[in-house]
Amino acid sequence: MKYVILVGDGMADYPIEDLGNKTPLQVANKPNMDELAKKGCSGLLKTIPKGMNPGSDVANLSIFGYNPKKYYTGRGPLEAASLGIKLKNDEVAFRCNFVTVNNNVMVDFSADHITTEESKELINVLNNKIKSGKFYVGVSYRNIFIYPDGKINKLKTTPPHDIVGERIDKYLPKGENSKKIVEIMEKSREILNNHPINKQREKNGKKPANMIWLWGQGKRPKMIPFEKRFNIKGATIAAVDLIKGIGSYLGLKNIEVPGATGYIDTNYKAKGKYAIKALNNYDFVYIHVEAPDEAGHAGDVEEKIKAIENIDSKILGQIIDNVNMEELTIAVLPDHFTPVSVKTHTSEPVPYVLYSPRLKPDDVYSYDEFSAKNGSLGIDKGYNLIKKMMG
Ligand SMILES: [Zn+2]
Asked: Which InterPro entries does the UniProt entry name for this protein (predicted)?
């Protein structure tokens, strides 16, 4: 048996007036997801344990089969792992966003989706001028900062995508060691403000990356490898560092796909093709697509529907057409809701569909937030999905 989990990040949504009070999943043309619902079973998964933030880190850790309450130490260390950074015991990894701040208001948590090339140059400058830690280049606006002194247990930080349009003052890091971290963030403004790259960006009508925002900090997590736990060899197909990072702590191989950007123009067809190829060598493939989440954060309904349709036709459709369904167990789900009306993640249980030749189909015929409630799988904890898939 082969196992596939296909995650459309932030795909789930609320009913939208302009869509006749339907959700993007209900409106999207997604024959393959609906076919899986028909032939498989549906249900709801609690990917965000009570009291935890609805981040992609927590949610995806759940879907991988690891209880976040037990294994989660922060997003930073997971992303650092994907860059090959081995954290020492005392080191703390932060997610380091390039952001756009004007008049102390968070204008863009992604600095207008700054390119990795531009990020690379700005990270070099930061490393030359700030010596209290080390910066590493990630993808686009998503970079990493390693702070050597681990005394940050009570440090409180805020994800920048949660405060778009708000004054940053009250969201700067607070608590233990926060003064030093705030100093680094303030210093970045001096360094970045007049940098030629930002001057050029503004000339081109792009927002400047005029500040770094540090958040998601944590120390190295201790995880049992996936293969040891579930007795199968697995791989990930993902463009974003977070998923690669979780995968690398779990001992999963990340398969690089040309053209996978982690943004709405991600190369869906290639992802599907590489997933099918990966199934020759691995029993388990975890495919993650960031695009619907980005559309959700942007409040863009059209893009969200398009992303869902692309996942359905170019990834799921390709898999269904090319893999023997008698030997495939596959689940499709979002990690969390990213409603376009809220523009950020929310915590409700996510709809999922699970197909396996072993499972007797239930009476649900389409895949969406409301249909899934009537499925035979009921409501369960996110980290039980893998166990369910394996029977
Ligand atoms: Zn997510």
From this structure: Alkaline_phosphatase_core_sf (IPR017850), ApgAM_prokaryotes (IPR023665), Metalloenzyme (IPR006124), Pglycerate_mutase_ApgM (IPR004456)
